[in-house]
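DATA SHEET
Item: assembly model
Revision: 1
Owner: S.N.
Input lines:
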Amino acid sequence: MSFIDARQVPNGTQLTPDLVVVGGGPAGITLALALAHTPIKVLLLEAGGMEFDSATQQLYAGDETGVRYIPLDATRLRYFGGCSNHWGGWSRPLEPIDFEQRDWLPYSGWPFSRAELEPYFTRAQQLIEAGPFLYDTLAKGDLPGSLLPLGPGGVYNSFFQFSQWRGNANHLPTAFGHRYADALKGIPNLQLMLHANVTGLRLAHDVRWVDHLDVATLSGGRFTVHPRHIVLACGGIENARLLLASNDVISAGVGNQNDQVGRFFADHAIPRNTATLVVFGGEIAGFYKANQDARGAHFRATLAPTERFRREQKLLGALPTVEQRVELDEIGRAAVATTSAALGVDASNAHAYSLGTGLELAPDPERRLTLIDTRDALGMPRLKLNMTISDGDFASYRAILVELGRQLLAAKSGMLRLDRSTRTEWLSAMDWGNHHMGTTRMHEDPKRGVVDANAQVHGLANLFVAGSSVFPTYGASNPTLNLIALTLRLADHLKGVFG
Amino acid sequence: MSVSRRTIMAAGGTLVAAVAGGIVYEGWRLLRDRYPPTPYDDLLDRLNSREDARRIGLVFLGRHRNFTPATAARALRQRIGAHELSAALANEVALGGITEAAGWIIPESVAGLCALAASV
Ligand SMILES: Cc1cc2nc3c(=O)[nH]c(=O)nc-3n(C[C@H](O)[C@H](O)[C@H](O)COP(=O)(O)OP(=O)(O)OC[C@H]3O[C@@H](n4cnc5c(N)ncnc54)[C@H](O)[C@@H]3O)c2cc1C
């Protein structure tokens, strides 16, 4: 069956699927694929078409305050496949510690452990086409080069794997819309509608149930969907917007009776040139500098803190990677010559590299999305993001770098220079991962979260959320593999809900 | 014990040789590094290049104003003792004995040696 164009749907139409999935990014597509062989009649509503379109993209624009962040219409894509149309494919499972409630990290912890996601990682890995699920086991097998020797301590050689669209000549990461279009067209119980923007969730009289959804097209079409169940899969920013903007009955918005929706926004900070890594023995193995292939995986090394070190030192996650080769200044050359000689090693062929990192942020309720007065072309209120990053977040990463420096000296393999200390220095070379998380956080207590452990919105019998907006604590790992595993778990739950 | 003339001559010979050797050694040092003798040469001689060490030491001293060479030298002698410097550093680093100079993470003893080099 081919996709339906919502612009052709007559005004006033009422659709009645079993389940409506709002959003056709990796989360929505994963859910549709996972429910393929069930009797559940699914309608997937996607705001965009098959390709980028600036009028649709404009619907994502918003305001920002606080720390400089990417404009809201530049940090995501509103067409079929969502942000996977230009994601980087970096993948890594969250670590068990990321799920733990930690006394020293306010608001931390998931309602379950990583073991809960374990059964879903293999399938998630297949969907992102990142080869066999190897990650840290890569260190144990043959690699095309040597691991950087590190003395015993809190940092270890760890690995990312990369999504790689197998049929694609350029080996780009899997763009879910194009990659899975044919598979989706072959699902008998699925209707997939493009150019269908959900603009509101309308509650039933008892406010315990979403009665219907309003759908609008940019060509002026308006119709409604009356499903038994709903999954929001509009991405980590738009899931919150849709809940907040559906405020005709409850003024705070759907699911927002405890003022949690939109709070705890997070992304991974990506400060560049954070440190200089010197390798005494010469050139570092290629898989630290770029993606390489081994054992069927496209991978790259990171110098990651161990879970034990993070627990002991009370540290957030960080995944430092080698950026590029750099030249040392006079003091740097003196430091390397003096230290290597004192350690009794030859550093005459030493190579220096800059280190960047992906950095976890501590959960912060004030890093949040709120509605503003301006409206988009479909009449929906736009968002404002208040972005924050604390000095503690930087200090946590610095402690990891210091430990890495110590371990290099202990192994007599190299040394490290810290290149950022003040807040201004950190912020001066700051990128962001475009990993939108936390705005509909998962917590068993409705006062502390928007969805429960099954991703069901507290207090609403038929509304669920898929995607990284439910992550209550973020880790440093890239979100997509993990949100897909979580969506597969949700699919299993929904199969039970539908009996 | 009676001291024979022969012993005195031998001792004298050794002394002469030692003094001469000392002059040659000092002369060689002066020629090589052009450094006047200091009370810390036993430590500073463990450095690869005093000029390099001085560069780092100056930065380190900028952030450690109460550094006193005599106290630091005593501590360094105690820590390093008769060990090879590299062995002493390995032990030190394993126990967390690191510090920062100009952003560089270096063993505390290396920082101490550099600071000494910068203070003489
Ligand atoms: C530049 C960039 C690089 C990235 N690199 C990586 C990476 O290397 N590794 C990694 O793990 N992650 C990366 N990400 C993040 C990754 O793309 C997201 O985690 C992932 O796409 C989220 O999937 P999703 O389905 O939850 O949301 P999205 O991908 O945002 O998809 C949401 C979908 O919902 C649709 N939609 C939105 N609103 C409505 C509405 N009202 N009605 C109907 N449909 C709607 C959108 O059009 C879109 O198709 C990157 C993102 C960007 C932008």
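QC remark: DSSP finds twelve helices and 23 strands in chain A.
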